[in-house]
Amino acid sequence: MEIFHLQYPEQMTVPSLKTYSLALGFFDGVHHGHECVIQEALRVAKEKEITPAVMTFTPHPKRLFQKDCPERLYLTTKKEKERYLKKMGVEALFYVEFDWNLASLQPEQFIQCFIEDLNVKHVVAGFDFTFGVKGSGTMTTMEQLSAGRYTTTTVEEVAIDGETVSSTYIRHALQSGKIDLANRFLGRYYETDGIVVDGEKRGRQLGFPTANIEVHPELMLPLKGVYAVYFTVRGKRYKGVCNVGTVPTFNDGNTYTVEVHILNFDHMIYGEEVTVEWVARIRDEQKFDGIDALIAQIQADKESADAILDEVLA
User: Fold this and answer.
1) Assigned architecture for domain 2-164
2) Over the stretch 274-301, which tens digit does the pLDDT of each residue have?
3) 206-209 contacts: CB < 8 A, separation 24 or more?
4) What is the pLDDT of residues 93-102, one digit of tens each?
5) Reported pTM
């Protein structure tokens, strides 16, 4: 998959310009709704024998417009998004820098620079996609201004149980600890990539060694608690039980950690890149009065995670 980085007006040259069927959107999470948009762009690309492409933006527009924007905003890092898109069959990915220059463009200017000048022959976006100054451009605008130079498809909302599938809804589900709902709307388990870092080794002392995961600081984490997870390292997937939170039995409640006890695993993996798939929530994080009570609960959590993941695999 070719990856291009554009910034208006300074950096707009694409070295290997082709003819594109383009899916437009931010695509954070690459959820069920996003997949419908991208699959339509792929379908048209095959039909017209042109290159299937995606155009997305960085950073999230909320970073520009929302003063109280949370630090942990994203459902996917760039690396994760690229992995999902490549797997779907996208052959070109355009990252467009979202800054005040871009946000100030008139819809006509946006179309000229990012559709016509890039040799896009078909544009696909969701029903709620907007572009141009103050979001004044819609997919209706896109079609009206095409003058036959390109065609368009607007993908209607995708709903599950009457609820529109959206990144915002998935974020709320994660913040509420409703990991099953988030996974259902994503169409897969919520994933977080990270690096295994050195920790306090307290889990090893308790008989339950954990991998301490350093997660990208802008990536969303589920509500504090204990979860059944899959843990992938060195290309192999393992069962695990994960505590995400502040470890209140030992800490002051201010240090946020992601710790995974990997079932049937005894290898040194410091510095390794890993992926955590959040399968099910087991319980809230809690503070214990003593070590014995904590050890008993960890053992129970381990057994719960093992049973949950066995059921998933059945």
Assistant:
1) 3-Layer(aba) Sandwich (3.40)
2) 999 999 999 998 877 778 888 888 899 9
3) 206/291, 206/294, 206/295, 206/298, 207/295, 208/261, 208/295, 208/298, 208/299, 208/302, 209/261, 209/266
4) 999 999 999 9
5) 0.89
